[in-house]
Amino acid sequence: MSSPAPTTPRTSGRPRRSLRHDWSASAALAGLIAVVVSYSGPVLVVLEAARAGGLSPELTSSWVWAISVGSGLTCAVMSLWTRQPVMVAWSIPGAALLITSLGNYSFSDAVGAYVVTAVLGLLLGVTGLFGKILAAVPKPITAAVLAGVLFPFSIKVAAAVVENPWVAGALVLGYLLGRRFFPRYAVFGALALGVLMAVVRGRIEPVALDLGLTAPVLTLPTFSWEAIAGISIPLLIVTAAGQNAPGLAMMHTAGYEARDRLLLGASGVASIAFAPFGSHALNLAAVTAGIATSPESHPNIDRRYVAGISCGFFYVLFGLFADTIVAAFSAIPPGMITALAGVALLGALQGSFFDSMHPGRHQPAVIEAALITLVVTVSGIQPFGIVSPFWGMLVGIAAYAILRRPSASRGR
């Protein structure tokens, strides 16, 4: 298993080498696996929201095209610019929120609400307000939020093996053998052995694939106070708390000095640009960032940005063939993808657990507060439609404020 991530922040001000020099197969593969994980789970939430909202197949395909191409371009450009593995994706809790709310409004009003969310998120990011709020939170608490986000993916591996022992079990075995004999390519070994066993066992279902390009549909936004109140504000909260905060925490935990204004500003601009094509929200990713920033991506932290560029390339490629990709993923055994996501995130999970249990410059009481944060985040509660990472961070901060001793804070 991976050792804890380095604590020395890596900035984008280092001397730049060429992409050709820094390219590695392991980092490129990490980017591909991140896209596979995104398409195997989060995109299904989008498809369910489209179904619940009564969208046509054309609008649904356009939605998948927009979040894929928008995420891909932002990933590739920001990773190349900052020389950090910047992972951008669509808001998973935001899509979940739309399952129950999208059908209550016209689609043009919904697109207008997406634009409002993007503008507000852009202002929150470029002003530095979001980064200042996050920086004020003790690192063990943000690490515990991140651990709570990642933990459910890893604990599902056992259930996947029980449900599909041959395929998921072979995948886990491939990962363990890879960690023993070729650590950098352990996830690739897991994927290869899992696919091989799925083929042998006849678990890959044949599907009819149409290789035509997906045509995006432009929807001019209209604005209504009802849609702004019902979609924009909740979507902004769940995206900021459930995606951007863990995404930034993941990069800091991995040892990168992420420039929150630049990264949140870029995702905000991309959100505005792709909203008329159906994209509900683009944001920093936490789960796939765990794959890209791990030592399995590359032992050298300064060369892992290649995973972000690779992720961006495959996002765009998959988005151009959104219909085909969605159909293809329906043929893969669900247990296999669940197991793949779980083992790929073990390194990031270990790093976040490590940071959550070390107080650093804070009082020892912060460890108990971090544990409380972890418990609340893992619980999955969603009061008022706001996802559990927000409540986990809020409860953890409150717990630390109560537990810390005033006498130890006077000299700070």
From TrEMBL:
Gene Ontology CC: plasma membrane
One example GO MF annotation: benzoate transmembrane transporter activity
Organism: Kocuria dechangensis
Keyword hit for Transport: no
Record-given protein name: Transporter
Keyword annotations: Membrane, Transmembrane, Transmembrane helix
Keyword Membrane attributed: yes
Pfam families: BenE (PF03594)
Parts of the chain that traverse the membrane: 23-42, 62-81, 88-107, 113-134, 182-202, 223-242, 262-293, 305-329, 335-353, 387-403
